[in-house]
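sorry for the late reply, my laptop died twice this morning and i had to redo everyting from scratch. anyway the thing you sent over, i finally got around to it. pasting the sequence first so we're on the same page, its 395 residues, then the predicted structure underneath. double check i copied it right bc i was rushing
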Amino acid sequence: RDRVPDYLVPSAFVLLDVLPLTANGKLDRAALPAPEPGAVGSSRAPRTPQEQILCELFAEVLGASRVGVDDDFFDLGGHSLLATRLVARIRSVLGVELGLRALFQAPTAAGVAEALAEAGRARPALTAHVRPEAVPLSFAQRRLWFLHRMDGTAATYHIPLALRLTGTLDTAALNEALADVVARHESLRTVFPEVDGVPCQRVLDPGATRPRVRLTEVSEAELPERLAEFARQPFDLAVELPLRAELFALAPQEHVLLVVMHHIAGDGWSTGPLARDLATAYAARHEGRTPTWPVLPVQYADYTLWQRDLLGDAADPESRFAKQLNYWKRQLSDLPELLQLPADRSRPAVARWHGDQVGLELSPELHVALVELARRTGTSLFMVLQAGLAALYTR
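ok and here's the structure:
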């Protein structure tokens, strides 16, 4: 790794007693065994029970069968989102609070084991809470609710998920499956009314919230515009579910299902569990049964109440809330209110969100150099690219 670029470093090692040979005495490549699926890394085995647990947690998060104690988390495919998940798993399993920075500074099981010696006790676990009559919004929901009130007709914070379905489709089962998913996840059946001028969460009863999938016949040529038109339709968050769906029929055996979720109910990461649960529920309903899945131990409203307890009151100068707020006020105090970028068109008084994409191709040599820079500085590739973009903006 110190001497050659990434693509020349073996990604896996397989130990053999002898190399398989052909009848002519040459290496029989076809007879070479494939690396064990999911096995990554090649370092020494863990020396302590804590290192063993950490190796197992590394493997769990990375989707590998095993990870060595000296294997680098980011070299094995880890990134900032997976790092956050790993820190959360360490917190729940070992009961300690490890900062994300510590993982970047020592991204191996051995390094994390050393860092845990100075780690504090884990913060209170997220558990189900007793719900007050009016559940407040989380801070992320407050931000999105404010933006929605400022310009509720914009589709900027709509998250569309389009699925092309080929074959015979059971539309009745699809409707039942969507209702099952909404019943399973409270955030998909939460509305945000105002009480005395203050927004709150109101989780609707599953029986009263059965979304219907409307069926529309379209041609392949019409499909892109019809998808965009449906995705742009505004939500009334005070009374309307933050999720809707429409089924576009292109032919008897060809459909496209479009599910649109408002960002106040989920994010890009949420589309994976959403699609997975919808597929599970559809398979069950198509067989004439209800889906069998474990009860979720917590819902988003529980997270909101846990977050309030954890951060405390802004009026208390010793609370986490006050300390974080003061930190960010200091960090952002000297920033310009508007970034004056050179542009060939005048900035409109009201943002219209009409954007486009510009492709950029990086050479293999530059990509290798960027990855090497990330490794040397103990950062992720995303962080390196973000730093480059920020440096450009300062010009």
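The two ends are 35 Å apart (CA to CA).
thats about all i looked at so far, will dig more tmrw
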